[in-house]
Amino acid sequence: MSIAQTLLVGDRRLEGFLTRPAAASGLVVFAHGSGSGRFSPRNGYVAERLNRAGLATLLFDLLTEAEAADRARVFDIALLGTRVSEAVEWLAGEPAVAGLPVGVFGASTGAAAALVAASALPERIAAVVSRGGRPDLAGAALPRVRCPTLLIVGGADPAVLDLNRAAAERLVCETRLEIVPGATHLFEEPGTLDRVVALATDWFRRHLGRATGGVRDEEPPEPQ
Question: Which residue has the higher pLDDT, 11 or 49?
Answer without folding.
Answer: 49
